[in-house]
Amino acid sequence: QVRLVESGGGLVQAGGSLRLSCAASGVIYSDNVMGWYRQTPGKQRELVASLSSGGSTNYADSVKGRFTISRDNLKNTVYLQMNSLKPEDTAVYYCNVGDRIVKVNYWGQGIQVTVSS
Questions:
Q1: What tens digit of pLDDT does each residue of 27-45 get?
Q2: C-alpha radius of gyration, the chain, whole number
Q3: What is the pLDDT of residue 29?
Q4: If both were cysteines, with which of 19, 31, 38, 61 could 91 make a disulfide (CB 3.0 to 4.6 Å apart)?
Q5: Considering Cα of 9, then 23, then 98, then 52, what sign does the dihedral take?
């Protein structure tokens, strides 16, 4: 059973920074994509950033240049460094791991990020 545990969320002023972490436990095969999504009330969950085990990254246009995704494969942990935060970044952020071998998507429980103006 794969479990994802997020940490690092909270309240920050506009222009500030936060770093989200997501630690995965359980069996995850080496061919995978780790990423972050976010969701606000009434809207669909959207991709923020992803990073494959091969090193390919993908960012939402709205966060390019401000957010950086990274991962530690030995720790099965993915990070999201968020700089120059804006009130519109306020959302619940979800960690996601897509295991390409068993073709399963795993989700964390979500963590709140609130950016005050």
A1: 888 889 999 999 999 999 9
A2: 14
A3: 83
A4: 38
A5: positive
Measure the CA–CA gap between 31 and 12, rounded to whole angstroms.
35
What b/e readout covers 75-102, taking b as 16+ CB neighbours within 10 angstroms?
Answer: ebbbbbebeebeeebbbbbbbbbbbeee
Placement of tokens 């990070």 in the chain: 79
> Which 3 state secondary structure label does DSSP give 114?
strand
Total residue count of the chain as it appears in this document: 117
In sequence order, which residues have a C-beta less than 8 Å from that of residue 47 and are 6 or more positions away?
Answer: 35, 36, 37, 58, 60
Q: Which residue type, as a one-letter code, is found at position 14?
A: A
